[in-house]
Amino acid sequence: MTQPFRTAALYQFTRFEDPAALRAPIEELCRTHCVQGTLLLAHEGLNGTIAGPPAGIEAVIAHLRTLPGCAALEVKYAWAAGEPFHRLKIRLKREIVTMGQPDLDPLADAGTYVAPEDWNDLIARPDTLLIDTRNDYEVAIGTFPGAIDPETKSFRDFPDWFRANRDQLLAGKKKVAMFCTGGIRCEKSTAFLKAEGIEEVYHLHGGILNYLEKTSAADSTWQGECFVFDERVAVTPDLAPGTHVLCRACRRPVGPEARQSPLYEEGVSCPACHADLDADKRARLAERHRQEALARKRGTRHVGAKMDKD
Predict the structure, then answer these.
(1) Please, which residues have CB within 8 angstroms of residue 132's CB and are 6 or more apart in sequence?
(2) Residue 60, Cβ neighbours under 10 Å: how many?
(3) What is the per-residue DSSP string for 181-219?
(4) Which of 181, 214, 287, 288 has an alpha carbon 20 to 30 Å from 301's alpha carbon atom?
(5) What superkingdom heads the lineage (predicted)?
(6) How far is CA 241 from CA 186, 236, 237, 294, in A?
(7) Which residues, given as ranges, of the chain have pLDDT below 50?
(8) Predicted pLDDT of residue 295
(9) Which residues, listed in sequence order, are joined to residue 13 by a DSSP beta bridge?
(10) Beta carbons within 10 angstroms of residue 76's beta carbon
(11) Residues 6+ apart with CB under 8 A from 152
(12) CB 211 within 8 A of CB 220
């Protein structure tokens, strides 16, 4: 099957003096090359996922690498048979990943990178505390064995969770290893732990996606699927599209078993959110789903179809 759309997930902590001045040239280049998705710009750097024709993605990435501090920008590429995003958003933000800790400096204070080939040895050590820094709905569909799940609804919750559980978590542990999807949340979470006085802090370089790409099936300890912030929803350990779909009401991944529940209605609700939706909300979601189906049948794009990155 031909897969004409190339996706590019990227982030870079750097120091932009005037991120607003960078916005228009990036947006113009993306529109010229039919590239869509979301890019966040802040004084601390850039973050996002975009998709489009291969030549268009190459042009945009080449431009981003000309920005201050972005020459070594790392990008995780994938292919998609359908268009992963339905619009372009270039947003100015206070943080490129929101933790609510404005004094952190991941450029200077992030933890030690651990290459995928060294990750298994580190997390197998009895004196290593392994923490999954992602949100609860992400952890639910896949993680590393033995990883602590903070059960957070938002990355903003992580600092309070750690402070409340610090003594219990660190009992008998000398090292803390953390991981996330692509690496960006671990840049901040390791900087946070170091600011809290934890000395030996490590994080998986490039995140789960880099680990799955670089680690053979025989050596991988990953269990389940990995949630991603595009229309694939989740990927398998071999980075193929997974078995989950997205609930359009609560934006959570819904697996095959949950889709058999009478509480699941495509485009309207899933078992996790069914009880929270009133009749008006359900009617509006059902109408949107109907309009999207009609648009697909006509071969056009429904303007309400989107998937925002957390």
Answers:
(1) 139, 143, 144, 147, 148, 149, 150, 178, 179, 180
(2) 22
(3) SSSHHHHHHHHHHHHTT---EEEETTHHHHHHHHS-TTT
(4) 181
(5) Bacteria
(6) 24, 6, 10, 25
(7) 1, 305-310
(8) 76
(9) 45
(10) 20
(11) 135, 136, 158, 161
(12) yes
What's at 207, amino acid-wise? G
The phi, psi pair for 283, rounded to 5°, reads -65, -40
- Name the residue type at position 55: A
The DSSP element (H or E) to which 162 belongs, if any, is helix 158-170
In the numeric block, the tokens 């802040």 are attached to: 42
Q: Could you list the active site residues?
A: 180
Cα angle, residue 180 at apex, residues 175 and 181 outer, rounded to 5°: 155
Around Cβ 285, how many Cβ atoms within 10 Å?
18
Place of tokens 């869509």: 36
For the 5-92 domain, the top CATH level (class) is: alpha beta
Residues in the chain: 310
Q: Which residues pair with 132 in a beta bridge?
A: 179
CB of 127 within 8 A of CB of 174?
yes
- Could you tell me if 182 and 133 are in contact, meaning their C-beta atoms sit under 8 angstroms apart? no
CA–CA distance, 70 with 45 (Å, rounded to integer): 9
Report the pLDDT value the prediction gives residue 304, as an integer from 0 to 100: 53
Judge whether 96 and 42 are in contact, CB under 8 Å. yes
pLDDT tens by residue, 98-138: 999 888 889 989 999 999 999 999 999 999 999 999 999 99
What CATH number belongs to 112-224?
A: 3.40.250.10
- Provide the pLDDT for residue 1: 43
Maximum alpha-carbon separation in the chain: 61
Assigned token pair, 161: 């969770």
